[in-house]
Design goal:
Distance between the termini: 29 Å
Number of strands: 13
Radius of gyration: 25 Å
Strand content: 15-25%
Number of helices: 12
Order of helices and strands: EEHHHHHHHHHHEEEEEHEEEEEEH
Number of domains: 2
Helix content: 40-55%
Strand order of the largest sheet: 6-7-13-12-11-10-9-8
Length: about 400
Amino acid sequence: METSAKPSSYGVLRPVNAVTALILLLSFAIHCASHRAWADPALEQALASKDPKAAERVLKDADTAEPHLLMQASLGLLESGQDDKAVFWFHAGQLRARYWPKLRGDNAQIITIFQMSIGEQVNARAFRDIPALLRTLEGVVAWDEKTFPKWATAMKLDPAEPELLERRRKALEGIARYKEKLLAEREALEKYARQYKSPAQLDREQRESIKRNYSQNVVEINVAGTRFRVPANYLSPDGSVRNSEQKLTDIGFWIFLPDFGGYTRDNSQQPLRNPNVILVRVQEQRYTRPEVQVEDFLADGGAIKERVGDFEAAVYDSKKTRAPLPVNATSRHHVFKAVKANGGPYYVVCDAQSWATEEHSGCEMFLGDARRKLLVSALFSRRHVGRIAEIEKRLSAMLESWVVN
């Protein structure tokens, strides 16, 4: 998968690939939802839709605005062609966000997410003229100095509180270091800005590529010594398959419910946001098999059971067992064990911490293929947990039909 150098504010060039970008967008939505306790949800929704009027509403009271709203307002400014204002207010919001106490701990990730989503588009404009950006940053510092006491009071903070002042001092030092990096990396940054393509441009190019190249032709791939003959639209939206002649260590197949089909010309946008997508991963077996880890948990800490729909699930709690799961299980999970349609066990692990919120809950099914020394798993939305028997049966049959004997 291709990567591109992407500068981030107060940082260095970072490679970010397409899947990472999709995950960031999903994280962006989740974090926005989590911090709305102190923001206006309707206003944030309008800002996210790049509404210029929402940006004007925020900027009317910019001196006392919550920092993340200033960063989001820059999207609407970009949309209306006000690039200079967008650059100023994005960096103004970012500076203030770095010393706002509410954006500490887990909420500090919000700054990173905003940098790598909104900041990407803002900096693509700003890096075209590094000297102008340096002057803008000087203006941001001057604005912050002038309005800091008023803003702190509006946020119910003491503008003379030592810890707040120390955090602000470090944030200002960060801008000074960032200015040095801008000068040192000016050539690379200006080249990045010249070559940058906006999300809208990339979306348009992808749609054109799909229209041009979409294919359901069967292609052959070799995954860890097992050869598969797969319709190309299960591998990518435009039917392209990179390195099909090489021996791969892993591959992903995209399956769309309800018919278990592949990509069409109309369903290719943001599959990670589509709750009806199953991502099947086939990997070379190099570590402990997930099925073994789940069985170890069931033997050691799977005594507590809960009824989930028509199924009985073991409850995983990392505080009550030392047995690890083959997922990032720092919260409660439901663990299901069932029998495959053609015999043998399979397992499903689902996030139970946010069980009441289907939108952000996921499940991972472990199908196993010890005979071929492959690890086979499937990621899908928790809303389909009632269909796990159907999912197992259809996926197992589909994968077996693709194997070249």
